[in-house]
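stage 2 :: seqdesign
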């Protein structure tokens, strides 16, 4: 009877998820913070963060990774926004199958997609390098840009478009002054899902450049793999990434609220 009463409360169904989050999300993050602020002897230290700014290689790799991420994100928006728009707009009679075809690559492991890209370049005799890396990143992360934009435009209230048309707005004016502002939350979500993972990836850059080009994720992976004092440095680099992700999410959330409240003004 007590078990039935316990299972009958909806709040109790969240307990397994809370336990899972505590062990596999919160605890690993706390360990990252702990190792980032200690040295090899277990003493509190900020030397790991100072080391990042003192090592030209790590700082240079970080700046280079930001540049690669910006290029990847730009082309993902350039390709993904029109694709999401045409899929979501009813007047173009785009079948839902097209949306599934664009989202379908998300169901395949990213490493398998990357290895397929390497095999394709080998088949057509295209040398691996920076160009192959950017192409592979765009190919791997493009669905993560398309889906949130598509989802936002699809759920857009059509009365806004009808009101703009009744006021004499042309199709281009409706797109620029109504559709684009309303779809910005989806764009911000797509940027967050593309930009930060691009900086922190390491397998894609290793496969598509034959280890000739390293991104920031490769630096973190190398130090964590070595262990010892390098593990603390790798944790500090990971914490730097977490802080950047947190700030990006925070300001991105504020931009979403601004877009929702004043996007049509």
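stage 2 :: out
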């Amino acid at each position: 009877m007590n078990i039935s009463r316990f299972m009958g409360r909806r709040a109790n169904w969240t307990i397994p998820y809370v336990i899972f989050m505590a062990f596999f999300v919160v605890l690993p993050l706390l360990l990252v913070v702990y190792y980032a602020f200690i040295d090899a002897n277990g003493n509190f230290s900020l030397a790991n963060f100072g080391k990042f700014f003192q090592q030209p290689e790590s700082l240079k790799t970080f700046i280079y990774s930001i540049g690669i991420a910006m290029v990847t994100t730009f082309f993902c928006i350039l390709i993904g926004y029109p694709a999401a728009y045409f899929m979501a707009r009813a007047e173009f009679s785009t079948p839902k199958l097209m949306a599934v075809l664009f989202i379908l690559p998300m169901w395949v492991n990213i490493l398998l997609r990357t290895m397929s890209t390497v095999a394709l370049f080998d088949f057509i005799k295209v040398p691996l390098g920076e160009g192959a890396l950017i192409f592979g990143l765009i190919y791997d992360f493009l669905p993560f840009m398309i889906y949130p934009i598509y989802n936002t435009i699809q759920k857009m209230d059509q009365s806004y478009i009808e009101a703009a048309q009744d006021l004499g707005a042309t199709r281009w004016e409706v797109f620029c002054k109504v559709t684009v502002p309303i779809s910005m939350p989806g764009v911000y979500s797509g940027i967050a899902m593309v930009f930060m993972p691009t900086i922190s990836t390491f397998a894609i850059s290793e496969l598509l450049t034959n280890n000739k080009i390293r991104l920031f994720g490769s630096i973190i992976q190398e130090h964590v793999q070595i262990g010892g004092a390098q593990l603390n440095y790798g944790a500090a680099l990971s914490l730097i990434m977490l802080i950047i992700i947190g700030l990006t999410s925070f300001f991105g959330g504020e931009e979403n609220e601004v877009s929702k409240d004043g996007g049509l003004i």
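stage 3 :: structure notes
- The chain has one domain: 54-262.
- The two ends are 58 Å apart (CA to CA).
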